[in-house]
From TrEMBL:
This is Tripartite motif-containing 46b. Residues 105-116 have a biased composition (Basic and acidic residues). The keyword Phosphoprotein does not apply. It comes from Pundamilia nyererei. Residues 436-547 form the Fibronectin type-III domain. Residues 247-289 form the B box-type domain. Transmembrane segments: none annotated. Residues 87-97 have a biased composition (Polar residues). Keywords: Coiled coil, Metal-binding, Zinc, Zinc-finger. The lineage of its organism: Eukaryota, Metazoa, Chordata, Craniata, Vertebrata.
Length: 788
């Protein structure tokens, strides 16, 4: 049984091998047949597949265009050719025999007739020059022999007479055209014949037409049968036979029979009505396909028109690029020469140093050799005089001492003549071309915008050194909050705002002055050395104060308790330290905590305008209040005499006392409380508190606490009686209140318990000793965006 099964498998394998061999042979024969068929379809003139073939009188076929070119080359006038069809060879669907053989109307003059009447013509290869037989006055049309056009047929090897009408009398070879088209279609299908899907086997015929609506292939008879004349099926679009029908209308791959009618711009995909209802497309911008197509077409058209309208710019850029390529080649050659020269200089320096060290080594060798040779000679002298009785006593004692304490006159080792080249080898290993500086890193904690812009940066550790820096800045047209200044015009003006530059900035900081208030500035830095400019740093945004900066100092003459409050020598810092009095007061308090408050005010009084200042509170402070207060009320608060001389009051300040009526109800003080690393923000401003008090009978003490900002900004609008507190680092408004401005108003600070405060120093005072840098404007400023 095993042998029988093995022999059966062997026979089956042999049969499969024979079948595969037969198939390969059939494929080779089919390929050979196709090549021979293609050779038969070639035009004898152009050696390509015939196109619009015409039959010559010798029954050979040639392309119509090739035949006309041959006649023109032989001196005949060019005939008027019929329009070329869309397909490589005309088919019965596009051109009929009747159309090809239709006679020319009598009322039309054919071009060949005009040629024949025009007079003499150049001789053909088989016909000598003869006088003209054209029609002219004094001679009849029928006189003279007719013109005979001769065509040199390549397959025949002789001239063929075409007649007086030339190619007009040659018929189109429609059968050859159909064969050519069938051949082209078969080759495009990979030599796979498309059969009719409606013929009954075994007489299945090859398909000649395909229907895009029915998505089926038909032979001629089946197509007529299933598309009868006068029915809607007769209007179906017929195409060439194919195995892959493209749908006339795109349908949804997820929902059958649903047309893709919409386009989602967010997802960039086509949608059917059912896909459009899905939750994933909620909020997306969905357009009809026609509208999306039109929008995309207009966009592409505009972009193409822009490119076409800027051809001069493109050509100029191409010229610039070509010049840059040439310059690159020239500069690379120069750099290669400089590299070779540098290596030669290093080699020369090493050779010179090698000669110097070799000379020193040779000198040391010679000197040591001489010393040792002298010592040997001395020892040999002792041996020669050992038997001599006249040996001097002094020399004898010295010789004995040398024998007892023998040492070499020179060290034979050369250990200290070895070179330590580890550092030099490291330098040579790291030898490289000079690099531009890396992008600087801007210190956002030290950079600030106050009376001037102060920008601070540093280079990364792995960066190449920089000779100097270039600082660029520009004003941005959008302030924090997203609003664009001046609407559309302001946005356009901001878009045209050019970069301004400070060149050759030494050090790692720069000061920028002459800035506009309440504006956002964009800044960036890059370094420069012998290799050129490096990359820009990341852009930073600094917001200038909303009002002119007020510079003042702390006034230590007001309510200052020396045992609890200490003011620095510069009068810009203050520290509150609970003293002995607080300890004694707390000793008598058993049920409550006794707190003392110490007040500090600025040495300036405000009587008009808008002003801004900033300060920083130590995070470990217990309670510190920062704000403003009416000067007279501050004096009453601390029970100071009313007629105390104060440099803060200016009776001729021009203050309009008519504002008293409008702000009768405003409080005399406006403070924000900070402490223990937090800042307390009341829930409502002054007007909201007044409204809540009137409606509910009491004011709600609820508020919010936020982390204490590094710096706190205060802006006082004296005319409006309004005080706004900011995060001075980002100029983000924190809280807004109102204050009575019927008299001079002073900056005020209140300490409860331990704490410390420091006024923000002016940038101009901090950098007064710096050398000013040169200012360069990259693009001219086109508009003034100052708002105040």
């Amino acid at each position: 049984m095993m042998k029988t099964g093995g022999s059966y498998a062997l026979k089956m394998a042999e049969m499969d091998l024979k079948t595969a061999t037969s198939a390969m042979e059939a494929l080779v024969r089919a390929t050979s047949n196709m090549k021979s068929l293609e050779h038969e379809l070639h035009c004898p003139v152009c050696k390509e597949i015939v196109k619009q073939p015409v039959v010559l009188p010798c029954l050979h076929s040639v392309c119509l265009l090739c035949a006309s070119e041959v006649l023109v080359a032989n001196g005949y006038p060019p005939p008027e050719l019929p329009p070329e069809p869309n397909s490589p060879a005309s088919t019965p669907n596009t051109r009929s025999p009747r159309q090809a053989r239709r006679p020319t109307p009598k009322n039309e003059q054919r071009p060949i007739d005009r040629v024949l009447r025009s007079g003499p013509h150049p001789p053909s290869p088989s016909m000598p020059r003869s006088p003209g037989y054209g029609t002219y006055p004094g001679r009849r049309r029928k006189e003279g022999p007719p013109l005979v056009m001769m065509f040199p047929c390549i397959p025949c090897g002789r001239d063929v007479e075409l007649g007086e009408k030339g190619l007009t009398d040659c018929l189109r070879n429609l059968t050859l055209e159909r064969i050519v088209e069938r051949y082209r279609h078969t080759v495009s299908l990979g030599s796979v014949a498309v059969m009719c899907q409606f013929c009954k086997p075994p007489q299945t015929l090859e398909a000649t037409k395909g229907c895009a609506d029915c998505r089926s292939n038909f032979c001629n008879e089946c197509f007529k049968l299933y598309h009868p004349w006068g029915t809607p099926r007769a209007q179906h679009e017929h195409i060439q036979p194919t195995l892959n029908f493209r749908p006339k209308v795109l349908t949804c791959p997820e929902h059958d029979q649903e047309k893709l009618q919409f386009y989602c711009r967010s997802c960039q995909r086509l949608l059917c009505p059912l896909c459009k209802l899905r939750r994933i497309h909620t909020g997306h911008k969905i357009l009809p396909v026609a509208q999306a197509y039109q929008a995309l077409k207009e966009k592409i058209t505009k972009e193409m028109n822009y490119i076409l309208s800027n051809q001069d710019t493109v050509l100029a850029q191409i010229t610039q690029l070509e010049s840059s390529i040439t310059q690159t080649e020239v500069n690379s050659v120069s750099a290669r020469e400089q590299l070779a020269q540098s290596i030669r200089d290093l080699t020369a320096a090493l050779a010179e140093r090698h000669a110097s060290l070799t000379h020193a080594l040779e000198g040391a060798r010679q000197k040591r050799g001489e010393a040792l040779a002298a010592q040997v000679a001395e020892r040999r002298g002792l041996l020669e005089h050992r038997r001599s009785l006249c040996f001097h006593c002094t020399r004898l004692s010295k010789a004995i001492e040398n024998l007892q304490h023998f040492t070499l006159a020179a060290d034979p080792s050369f250990r200290h003549f070895q070179l330590d080249v580890s550092k030099e080898l490291k330098l040579l290993t790291e030898l490289n071309f000079i690099q531009v500086p890396l992008a600087p890193v801007i210190d956002t904690q030290r950079s600030l915008a106050y009376d001037q812009l102060f920008l601070c940066w540093r280079l990364p550790l792995e960066s190449a050194p920089s000779w100097h820096f270039s600082v660029e800045y520009r004003r941005r047209g959008v302030v924090p909050g997203g609003a664009s200044r001046g609407g559309i015009r302001g946005g356009l003006a901001a878009a045209r705002w050019g970069w301004q530059r400070l060149d050759e900035v030494s050090g790692s900081s720069a000061v920028i002055d002459r800035l506009e208030m309440d504006s956002v500035y964009v800044l960036r830095v890059r370094g420069c050395n012998k290799a050129g400019y490096g990359e820009y740093s990341e852009e930073v945004y600094l917001h200038t104060p909303p009002a002119p900066v007020l510079n003042f100092y702390l006034d230590s003459r007001w309510g200052l308790h020396a045992d609890r409050l200490v003011v620095s020598k510069e009068q810009r810092c203050a520290r509150s330290v609970p003293g002995l009095s607080l300890l004694q007061a707390a000793d008598h308090a058993l049920t409550s905590c006794h707190l003392t408050s110490d007040l500090l005010v600025g040495d300036v009084a405000i009587t008009q305008g808008r002003h801004y200042w900033a300060c920083s509170v130590e995070p470990g402070s217990y309670l510190v209040k920062v704000g403003v207060g009416l000067e007279s009320k501050l004096q009453e608060w601390f029970h100071l005499p009313q007629d105390m001389a104060s440099p803060r009051y200016d009776p001729d300040s021009g203050h309009d006392s008519g504002a008293e009526d409008a702000l009768d109800s405003a409080p005399p003080f406006c403070f924000l409380t900070m402490g223990m690393g937090k800042i307390y923000l009341p829930q409502h401003s002054y007007h909201h508190q007044q409204r809540d008090t009137n409606s509910n009978g009491h004011s709600s003490p609820a508020g919010l606490t936020y982390p204490l900002p590094p710096r706190l900004g205060v802006c006082l609008d004296f005319e409006k009686g309004r005080v706004t507190f900011y995060d001075a680092h980002s100029l983000r408004p924190l809280w807004e209140g109102h204050v009575d401005c019927t008299g001079p108003v002073c900056p005020a600070f209140c300490f409860i318990g331990g704490g410390a405060l420091q006024l923000q120093e002016l940038v101009a005072n901090r950098n007064a000793d710096q050398t000013p840098v040169r200012r360069v404007t990259i693009q001219p400023r086109v508009s003034n965006l100052n708002n105040g």
